[in-house]
Design goal:
This protein is of the alpha/beta class. The protein has one domain: Rossmann fold (3-Layer(aba) Sandwich), CATH 3.40.50.620. The chain contains five helices and five strands, in the order βαβααβαββα. β1, α1 and β2 form a beta-alpha-beta unit. Bound molecules: [cytidine-5'-phosphate] glycerylphosphoric acid ester (C2G).
């Protein structure tokens, strides 16, 4: 089974590792769409701390990740799901119901987020040090 997931994965933390590990466990081939710097800027009005090349290299080096590509646009989900022949789309439950429209071409699963950690929180903590 080919599993696909998407994310920014900026300032990699245990919540990212947990969801990638659990995603892989749902199948045997894990594909990760890492959002581009431009996509982040358009969504959040700031660039990620780590550049897209760094984020891609980090995600590629994880043992449970098989393939990585750049997610250029949120509007291209269906295209990516088809291009990578995904059987299962996984996202954290902060995205609950947001991708249900793709249930016609693959299974859509929302996994529980790891509590009490996020990139934004890490940035705030580091700022205070
Ligand atoms: N995540 C998690 N637990 C946390 C933090 C994040 O399970 N404590 C999950 C999110 O739910 C998401 C993945 O880790 O599924 C990546 O999170 P982000 O890097 O914050 O990605 P996001 O900005 O949600 O980008 O097309 C969708 C976007 O590209 C998703």
């Amino acid at each position: 089974m080919r599993v696909i997931t998407f994310g920014t994965f900026d300032v990699l933390h245990i919540g990212h590792i947990n969801i990638l590990e659990r995603s892989k466990a749902l199948g045997n081939y894990l594909i990760v769409g890492v959002s581009s710097d431009e996509l982040n800027f358009s969504k959040k009005k700031r660039f990620p701390v780590y550049s897209q090349d760094q984020r891609i290299k980090i995600i590629q080096s994880l043992k449970f990740v098989n393939e990585v590509f750049i997610e250029e646009s949120l509007e291209l989900k269906r295209h990516y799901l088809k291009t990578y022949s995904a059987n299962i789309l996984v996202m954290g439950d902060d995205w609950s119901s947001k991708f249900d429209e793709f249930k016609d071409i693959c299974e859509v699963r929302y996994l529980e987020r790891t509590p009490s950690i996020s990139t934004t929180e890490i940035i705030e903590i580091v700022k205070k040090i």
